[in-house]
């Protein structure tokens, strides 16, 4: 990355695994799936999901503010506040002109759109909320964080489907390398567990139909996987140039050594069966980081629990990486957080490196026959790795891979 070392000085999480980094870490290491029957989806072909537990927006943000925010923005603000506090930074005293915000999201605020569309049909156009657009526009995820945190630098939302969170972190690193910012609030947020969107995923055949045993439905790399389980949430990281972080005496929780972004240019939803695009993204991230395929000790895989994705990704990892890394998919616990997944999983990857423990892949009982050679732990496993990859792949064949390291 142009010789610029990027430090991660703060992290914040709101996911089905809990609210806050520590609760998340305990849950993913325990391998407890958060999937359950979802009353809001009971009349749809989706029926199950992974929702954020116990999220009291009024208590966390204030009732007046929460009322004016789509759930995706609520998640993003809470995660951003945790990350900024974790970094030991104070928006009241920093130079906001040098603070940027880059947030990934697959769809912005679809829940608001669906709710207001019902108002339009049932009560008429004059009852539609004047806050419809400020609540649902994707750019407002970054806009709300910028306002809340007094960040006057570049502010943008990145949409690369399920790679969005990873793409946002990559762009944030480039902003630091180009000296456009001194601090970037980067991550991803999505709240897509709506009847319309989840019905769309179900009609595509993307979702698990294991409705009778939801806790076993998300099973990455398992021979009996049949689709993903939708999730929601946000992950936010505070990124700074390492020299700046050291100069202010900040605690560095990990580093972003490099990143790779590619496109399959193959199909609107199906990954290239040869894995050429995702392999190119992995190799680009390694090259950017100055690493070899044998240097990687851990991979947080995209691992969606869909039949084709897991096979293609697993085959690619076995073909490219030579150091027998510990591979996990935390989606066995959280479900698929869509545009937030890459950012949340980057935090999990950094925690795995810092705490010398790789979380398990929940529900993996019988590995995919062609992937039995991969080292995929089913319990939390100690390790000594210093470098790792976090993979994120999206519809449209858009891929983002982050090369991460210990502090």
TrEMBL record:
<dbReference type="Pfam" id="PF02801">
    <property type="entry name" value="Ketoacyl-synt_C"/>
</dbReference>
<dbReference type="InterPro" id="IPR014030">
    <property type="entry name" value="Ketoacyl_synth_N"/>
</dbReference>
<dbReference type="GO" id="GO:0004315">
    <property type="term" value="F:3-oxoacyl-[acyl-carrier-protein] synthase activity"/>
</dbReference>
<dbReference type="InterPro" id="IPR018201">
    <property type="entry name" value="Ketoacyl_synth_AS"/>
</dbReference>
<comment type="similarity">
    <text>Belongs to the thiolase-like superfamily. Beta-ketoacyl-ACP synthases family.</text>
</comment>
<dbReference type="InterPro" id="IPR000794">
    <property type="entry name" value="Beta-ketoacyl_synthase"/>
</dbReference>
<keyword id="KW-0808">Transferase</keyword>
<dbReference type="InterPro" id="IPR014031">
    <property type="entry name" value="Ketoacyl_synth_C"/>
</dbReference>
<feature type="domain" description="Ketosynthase family 3 (KS3)">
    <location>
        <begin position="3"/>
        <end position="406"/>
    </location>
</feature>
<dbReference type="GO" id="GO:0006633">
    <property type="term" value="P:fatty acid biosynthetic process"/>
</dbReference>
<dbReference type="InterPro" id="IPR016039">
    <property type="entry name" value="Thiolase-like"/>
</dbReference>
<dbReference type="InterPro" id="IPR020841">
    <property type="entry name" value="PKS_Beta-ketoAc_synthase_dom"/>
</dbReference>
<keyword id="KW-0012">Acyltransferase</keyword>
<protein>
    <submittedName>
        <fullName>Beta-ketoacyl-[acyl-carrier-protein] synthase family protein</fullName>
    </submittedName>
</protein>
<dbReference type="Pfam" id="PF00109">
    <property type="entry name" value="ketoacyl-synt"/>
</dbReference>
């Amino acid at each position: 990355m142009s010789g610029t070392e990027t430090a991660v000085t703060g992290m914040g999480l709101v996911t089905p695994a809990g609210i806050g980094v520590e609760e998340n870490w305990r849950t993913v290491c325990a391998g407890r799936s958060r999937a359950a029957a979802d009353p809001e989806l009971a009349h749809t072909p989706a029926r199950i999901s992974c929702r954020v537990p116990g999220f009291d927006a009024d208590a966390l943000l204030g009732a007046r503010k929460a009322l004016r925010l789509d759930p995706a923005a609520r998640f993003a603000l809470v995660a951003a506040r945790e990350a900024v506090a974790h970094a030991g930074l104070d928006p009241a005293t920093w130079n906001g002109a040098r603070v940027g915000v880059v947030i990934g999201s697959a769809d912005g605020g679809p829940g608001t759109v669906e709710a207001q569309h019902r108002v339009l049909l049932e009560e008429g156009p004059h009852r539609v909320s004047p806050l419809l657009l400020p609540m649902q526009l994707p750019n407002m995820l970054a806009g709300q964080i910028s306002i809340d945190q007094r960040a006057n630098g570049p502010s943008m939302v990145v949409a690369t489907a399920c790679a969005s969170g990873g793409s946002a972190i990559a762009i944030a690193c480039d902003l630091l390398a180009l000296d456009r910012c001194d601090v970037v609030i980067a991550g991803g947020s999505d709240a897509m567990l709506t009847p319309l969107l989840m019905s769309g995923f179900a009609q595509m055949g993307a979702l698990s139909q294991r409705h009778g045993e939801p806790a076993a439905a998300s099973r990455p790399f398992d021979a009996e996987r049949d689709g993903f389980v939708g999730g929601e949430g946000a992950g936010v990281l505070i990124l700074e140039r390492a020299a700046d972080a050291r100069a202010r005496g900040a605690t560095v929780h990990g580093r972003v050594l490099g990143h790779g972004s590619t496109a399959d240019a193959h199909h609107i939803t199906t990954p290239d069966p040869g894995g050429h695009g995702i392999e190119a993204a992995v190799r680009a991230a390694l090259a950017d980081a100055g690493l070899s395929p044998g240097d990687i000790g851990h991979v947080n895989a995209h691992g969606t629990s869909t039949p084709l994705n897991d096979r293609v990704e697993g085959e690619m990892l076995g073909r490219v990486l030579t150091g027998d890394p510990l591979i996990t998919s935390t989606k066995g616990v959280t479900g698929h957080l869509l545009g937030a997944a890459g950012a949340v999983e980057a935090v999990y990857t950094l925690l795995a490196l810092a705490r010398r423990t790789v979380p398990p892949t929940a529900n993996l009982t019988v590995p995919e026959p062609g992937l039995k050679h991969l080292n995929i732990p089913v319990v939390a496993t100690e390790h000594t790795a210093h470098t790792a990859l976090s993979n994120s792949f999206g519809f449209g064949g858009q891929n983002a891979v982050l090369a991460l390291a210990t502090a």
